[in-house]
Amino acid sequence: MTFPYDLEKREKQSKLLYQLNQLTSFHINNNHAYKNMINKSIGIKQAATIEEVPYLPVQLFKLMDLVTVHKEEVVKVLTSSGTTGQQVSKIYLDKETSANQTKALVEVMRPVLGNTRLPMIILDSKSVLKNRRSFSARGAGILGFANFGRKHFYAFNDDMTVDWEGLKEYVVKNKGTRLLLFGFTFMIWKYVYKEAKEKGIDIEFGDSTLIHGGGWKKLRTESVDRHIFNSELKRVLGIQEVHNYYGMVEQVGSIFVECENGYLHTPNYADIIIRDPITLVPLPHGEQGLIQVVSSLPKSYPGHSLLTEDLGTIHGEDDCLCGWKGKYFSVSGRIPKAELRGCSDTFAYDQGGEN
């Protein structure tokens, strides 16, 4: 079994750059739309550094279908979160990409969860998984993390109310065993923590680990940060260990998990770059800017290098006190208004290329 945080900068950059260049060439040769955008924006060439690997803005996946493999090879379609009427990203996975992303997720979470599947409480509704071929971001997250558990219990009813009686019964039944909980940050805070606190619901999860991600934007408006979130869940629900993660449906499988010191980490197969929001020039460690994510996983669609709408800061590399190698960083929120940049600018004024 490989440890996903064992490569130091020089070795990691060399291996990852080679893999990213291979993916760029593959998508250029097999995806006409991608080839046209890269050719018109920066020109087709081998990147000498990871910072030079061409990227696409994540917004682009909301504007067009970007799939490199033949449609009959697609086994799963993922869609991003969005309110009614909003455009959503569509991400097409073939069997190889889907398997690689699942394998990578297991490796990334092993240092946190170990090798044994734990009794698992999913703080969501099972109805999210109704369509087994097309998943929302929530469904994709649940499906991916469900691999780490056994005897799964879905704590939410279809109307988003919590099945408190069923939840208490499950906890009692598994008393003395470490529990794994998974859910989405804002939903946990709103539907589980707040209701338990307001109604005085007596439940103690005990020896438990919670994995959660997404939804921080709404919590920040309530002045809830990581420290408040973790301490309140421990005080009210007795959850002992909490790990946040950062990820997105456009690069699902590329999960950046939080270490014991509260920093998000880049595994061997993925990395981040922080760019100036105006000039898009890479910024040094310690400065806040737009997050670019790169990953060696996406093969069925050109998602190996993406410029996100999120703001973040790299705090260091290879020297986190937790012992994990690679860059460690934090995410501070989204830019106020996302704009099309780079390759998507090309697409915006030239839609006459091949698809």
Notable characteristics:
six-stranded mixed beta sheet, 10 helices, 355 residues, Luciferase, domain 3
Architecture overview:
With 355 residues, the chain is an alpha/beta fold. It has a domain at 1-68 and 263-355: Roll (Luciferase, domain 3). The chain contains 10 helices and 15 strands. The protein has helices at residues 9-30, 32-41, 60-63, 95-113, 137-145, 164-173, 185-199, 216-220, 226-237, 343-349, and strands at 56-57, 74-79, 90-94, 118-122, 134-136, 149-154, 179-184, 208-213, 241-246, 256-257, 264-265, 270-275, 289-295, 305-317, 327-334. Strands 1, 11, 12, 13, 14 and 15 form a 6-stranded mixed sheet that branches. The longest helix is centred in the first third of the chain and has 22 residues, at 9-30. The radius of gyration is 20 Å and the shape is globular. It starts with 8 loop residues before the first helix and ends in a 6-residue tail after the last helix.
> CATH-wise, what's the superfamily of the domain at 1-68 and 263-355?
Luciferase, Domain 3
> Given the helix and strand composition, which structural class is it?
alpha/beta
- Main sheet summary: 6 strands, mixed
How many H/I helices?
Answer: 10
Overall mean confidence score, pLDDT: 88
Beta-strand proportion: 15-25%
Q: What is the first-to-last residue Cα distance?
A: 40 Å
Question: What string gives the helices and strands in order?
Answer: HHEHEEHEEHEHEHEHHEEEEEEEH
Basic shape = globular
What is the tally of beta strands? 15
Q: Show unreliable segments.
A: 338-355
- The value of Rg in angstroms is 20 Å
Question: In CATH terms, what is the architecture of the domain at 1-68 and 263-355?
Answer: Roll
> For the record, what CATH class of the domain at 1-68 and 263-355 applies?
Mainly Beta
Task: State the helical fraction.
Answer: 25-40%
Q: In CATH terms, what is the fold-level topology of the domain at 1-68 and 263-355?
A: Luciferase, domain 3
